[in-house]
Design brief:
Largest sheet: 5 strands, antiparallel
Protein name: long-chain-fatty-acid--CoA ligase
Number of helices: 10
Shape: globular
Radius of gyration: 22 Å
InterPro entries: AMP-dep_synth/lig_dom, ANL_N_sf
Helix content: 25-40%
Strand content: 15-25%
Distance between the termini: 41 Å
Pfam families: AMP-binding
GO molecular function: ATP binding; long-chain fatty acid-CoA ligase activity
Family: Belongs to the ATP-dependent AMP-binding enzyme family.
CATH architecture of the largest domain: 2-Layer Sandwich
Structural class: alpha+beta
Number of domains: 3
């Protein structure tokens, strides 16, 4: 699909690939799928290109059609106002080169009055300007291109300030780390009392089982593997490699990790129905584990204490 995605992005078609490969994939979806709509979190540009190439369809993401470029959302719909607002603390400004960047703010008659029975959140996210236009602060940091399209590059609510006054985006790091083969879900943790990041990892259990076979381990229960030092070291090394390959800075890579045997799903309230992590609930549920990660004062340590027993959860 990489071959087709490359050529279709340049405006060409691949009829032979469509006939021999894509037609079989399309039949698995019923053979009549023409349009796919993506909502929720921004779609990874590689995933977007692969889906569009494999299914040979029109892919709609976020605001409008996205046929000319991958990794972006389209121009705003008719009647929707949009603007970028500087966010100095995060280092995003409308004066940035080569393209303006900032928090994406929507306005117009279509904007709702606020969050139901949540006055504090409403006051924080909504405002009315001197012309009477109602605006909604999305919390998404975007980059605006000359053709009017946007690219979501960060999330304001996931930005934290470390002890050394540097800001890091937890959401950006987590999105990158989820591409690691051993990571199913990850919660990166940090705060004003530390210069380091740590992480809770809900591992991909299938790949973790394969890793245990490679290491010749007899214990194949997920709980045992999550406490195995050799397994943790291999997973941590893969996470570091993922971060380095993505080009993030050294300070954005967690210095310690803790593997947890629990799968995070909407059923156990760790994820939303849109499969987004509920950070506050995860941090509350694993409060002791997180404190243990930050309590490790050995600066040479790269993984958490894997010998400690994690309590069982329903």
């Amino acid at each position: 699909m990489g071959y087709k995605a490359k050529w279709t992005q340049m405006g060409y078609d691949c009829p032979l690939v469509n006939k021999l490969v894509c037609s079989k994939i399309q039949q698995q979806m019923g053979g009549r799928l023409k349009v796919m709509i993506v909502g929720g979190a921004p779609l990874n540009h590689t995933t977007q290109a692969t889906i569009k190439a494999a299914l040979n369809l029109t892919l709609i993401q976020g605001m409008d059609f996205d046929d000319l470029s991958y990794g972006r959302v389209g121009i705003p719909l008719q009647g929707v106002k949009v603007k970028l607002v500087d966010w100095a603390e995060g280092g995003y400004h409308r004066s940035d080169e080569p393209n303006p960047r900032g928090e994406i703010v929507f306005g117009g008659d279509s904007i709702v009055m606020g969050y139901y029975k949540l006055p504090e959140q409403t006051q924080e996210a909504f405002e009315v300007d001197e012309r009477g236009v109602r605006w909604f602060h999305s919390g998404d940091i975007g980059e605006m291109f000359a053709d009017g399209t946007f690219k979501i590059i960060d999330r304001r609510k996931d930005l934290i300030k470390l002890q050394n006054a540097e800001y890091v985006s937890l959401g950006k790091i987590e999105a990158l780390m989820k591409s690691c083969q051993y990571v199913d879900n990850i919660c990166v943790c940090g705060g004003t009392y530390s210069n380091e990041l740590t992480a809770l990892v809900s591992p991909n259990q299938k790949n973790l089982q394969k890793l245990s076979q490679e290491l010749g381990l007899k214990d194949t229960q997920i709980g045992d593997l999550c406490r195995n030092a050799d397994v943790c070291k291999r997973v941590y090394a893969a996470i570091v490699q993922t971060g380095q390959s993505a080009g993030i800075s050294k300070r954005e890579i967690p210095v310690r990790i803790r593997l947890v045997p629990d799968e995070w799903t909407p059923d156990n309230d760790m994820l939303t129905s849109a499969m987004k992590m509920k950070r506050r609930i995860v941090e509350k549920q694993y409060h002791n584990e997180i404190n243990g990660l930050f309590a490790d004062n050995d600066i040479h340590s790269i993984i958490s204490n894997t010998n400690s027993e994690s309590k069982k959860r329903a």
